[in-house]
Penicillin acylase family protein (Bradyrhizobium barranii), 815 residues
Amino acid sequence: MNTDLNRVIQKLCGAAICAALLTSTAIARDKPNPLGSARQLKTDVAGLDAPAQILVDVWGIPHIYAGNEHDLFFLQGFNAARDRLWQIDLWRKRGLGLLAKDFGPAYAEQDKALRLFLYRGDMNAEWAAYGPKAKTYADAFVAGVNAYVADVRAGKRPLPIEFRIAGTMPDPWTADDVVRIRSHGLTRNVASEVKRSLVACAAGLDADRFRVKLEPAWTTKVPDGLDPCSVPKAVLAAYDLATRPVAFAAPKDKQAALAHDPDKYLTEADQQRDTIGSNNWVIAASRTATGRPILANDPHREHSVPSLRYIVGLNAPGLSVIGAGEPALPGISIGHNGTIAFGLTIFNVDQEDLYVYELNPQNPNQYRYGNGWEDMRILHEKEQVKGEADRDVELKFTRHGPVIFVDDANKRAFAVRSIWFEPGTSAYFGSSDYMTAKDWNGFLTAMRRWGAPSENQVYADTRGNIGWVAAGKTPRRANFDGLMPVPGDGRYEWQGFLSLDELPKAYQPKQGFLATANQMNLPADYPIAERKVGFEWSDSARWQRITEVLSANSKVTLADAMDLQNDDTAMLGRRLVKLLQPLTSDDPNVKKGLELLKPWDARDAADSAAAAVFEVWIANHLGPVLLKTTAPKAADLIAPEASSISALVAYLESPDASFGADPAAARDQILRDSVGAAVADVTGKLGPDASTWRWGRLHVAKFDHALMPLADKATAAQLSVGPLAYGGAANVPRAATYRRADYQLFAGASFRMVLDVGNWDASRTINTPGQSGDPFSAHYRDLAPLWATGQYVPLLYSRPAVEAATAEAIILTPR
């Protein structure tokens, strides 16, 4: 057995899985009935055209085999409802603004906000934007969901426990529901526009350099006609309600749970630059030990139970794909089809803007545009509210988008323009187009139609080709940069959108690999002044570490790729530790901190004491101490943002007169003071004995179901997964963002995938905490311990390998 396979096996979860991996194809070949040991379940389904099978492997991954495309996507919907009905039903109700019907009047404002962000354009143009089979796939998928929902509502299949806890029932779908919902997608940077206005008002626009570094190098200015102090801190209350998950709380806590906290929201939204993203890379055959390309991807989003993503295999004549997608959407967005492989990370296109309007003093439904007043478009919709009479919901829109805030006292209104309102921008739905491509040109054809989110799409094929393309609907801003709110009077308009050919891409690169990690990756000669793609990117630390490792290895193995996804080296840590090397102190806390950090290997390992000090230092102490010196008027606005550490480190490396007459000496004192404060903080949390300090004692992963506040104590415990000690942090490859208040993990790589392109059964994956949404299923939590310790399970593709690893065979026949 080769060394790479040995290392891969060591990453799996025990003898049973290892045995299945090593002997799966042999067993399938030798046994007359390879499914004989699997649990058999037979069921009939209304709407199915022909008999089919769903083979669920021992890791909870379903592999669907159907006789035609209609049945395949029908069964994908049916299976999503079988395994994740509460999750996808809530996704639909939230997206369409139907929460108050089920959960009462406390959710009426969130419903109104959600309805503001629905797609309301031409549905023919919408469906056409995704490619030739998008509507067909969606129709079949929804029919499958509805078949399961109808059986549940008729009592023919069990009602999942979540509905019993909430006192609700699942509802049927339409195909339009799948694409009209936009608010689960990721655009940017309206929250940063508001924050920049607040900083500019409080301390001048120059102070914003401590909050976020603009890339490529760029100097912004306050747009003509905008008073930064006119932007209220709470202006994004409706936007917050429209983009947040649904929160449940006991009656006494419900008001607080659903309230908008502008400070908390703006801080968390700004942190998404380094929280919500991904790593991916693709390696040419010439640089791998297998002689085949390797494609790796680990998307970073907020953790949840059930997981945001769902792994599924889809097989019918002429179509065979496997990978992960969002459970409420047909197809997959990350995976392979047997010929090509694909993975994605966020490419930080600025896809939205906040517009500020002067209102007509005589008519609050008119706003200044050009030389006159323009009428808002006003819609009235009926909203059902549990326990009350129906309500009339009034929704207002300008030519740019929904009105999200009205400042009556100052006669101003604010609206968001977003690519969400353009055809073809339902998040991730465009993957239904590219998942069946057979070569680079076919992949690019699909990418020309890709709308949202804007992505770094990496590609590999069985011929040995690799590539990368940045894709997404990109506004063309001729006379403004999108970094601050702008007057909505007609001076600041989008001039259409950039074409795919105006965005960067690469194919068969000389270096033999391509990697993205949400960093600024526009080419050095990119005409940014002409094509203002965006200026706010994740810190490049993750990408720097990934490229450092890949550049040093000319024969990358699958195990190497998995190790790199779990690498916890902090490049920002290296830079800060370098600044600490010449420092000394007689203060006991500072001395202890320096003793731990100076020799530290800059790894955010779960068992590291230095990592605990470092993360507590940069999360809660370095920024506040520094900003009190350099930008005291903006300190309260900027210091709470852990994401600002990137800008602060760059400043500490090159201090200027903002530090006073002796910048280096002032910088060194700030480092000492903040390190000492961090050590005191860690001492209070972990005790005085530094030999017992561990980052994993603070940094834990715990997956709490949203319904836990409504469940009884025993059921709430069943709904929760963890806690699990965990290494990593936001700016290391093993992305694991934590809450600053208690260091509990809340976002990062819940799904990982490493593909051996062409030898597909050797590919590996993990999805935490598990595949199933049923709290009483073994697959609800079985993958979490593996994920927490950097382990993977096989992502099986061939029918013999799948059959050998099948734990449950669901035999479906038409009703």
Observations:
- Residues 1-6, 13-29 have pLDDT under 50 and may be disordered.
